[in-house]
Amino acid sequence: MSRLDLAARAEDEVRALHAFFVAWFRDGSAQTTDFVTYERAFAPDFRMVTPDGGSHDRAAVIGRLRAARGTVSGDFVITILDPHPVWQAENAVLLEFVERQYRDGRITSRRSIALFTHEPGAPRGVVWRYLQETWIQSGLDEDI
Question: Which residues contact 107 (CB under 8 A, 6 or more apart)?
């Protein structure tokens, strides 16, 4: 797979997963079968570091996502801004992006760095290996 194709697949994965999250969290309209599809996008050794410094393995992340179905009010929106690769190899890409969430009349933003590797059996041909999120203070992301 070309580097350009790998980066494009990673960006597609980020956008698709967050669109799924909106439906899953907001009103639970995403189907449980859809969840299984999206669950396949996380590598068995996936790890996530949350903006507050917590570290979670794949099982913990999947469990928290499953439990959050339909728990967020109807005004919840996620926008992905400025996705771009910061490092690439033949079968891996490190993608940086900003995730902006609107919920309950409030906007929060986080800068994320995610490592993806090529996986033909994954929904979009890549799997999440690692995700690090950092809060962006209000007003610091206005140029994005």
Answer: 100, 101, 138
> One-letter amino acid identity for 121?
G
CB count in 10 Å sphere of residue 81? 12
Whole-prediction pTM: 0.91
Which band of pLDDT confidence, cut at 50, 70 and 90, is reported for residue 1?
low
Nearest to 36 by CA among 57, 56, 65: 65
Which letter does DSSP use for residue 72 in this model?
S
What is the model's pLDDT at position 2? 75
Q: Is residue 87 part of a domain?
A: yes
Q: Does residue 108 form part of some domain?
A: yes
What domain count does the chain have?
A: 1
In a domain, 52, yes or no: yes
**Segments forming the whole domain that contains residue 7:** 3-136
Q: Could you report the per-residue pLDDT of 88-100, keeping only the tens digit for each?
A: 999 999 999 999 9
Per-residue confidence (pLDDT) for residue 140, from 0 to 100: 58
The Cα 15–Cα 25 span in angstroms is: 15
Decide if 143 is inside a domain: no
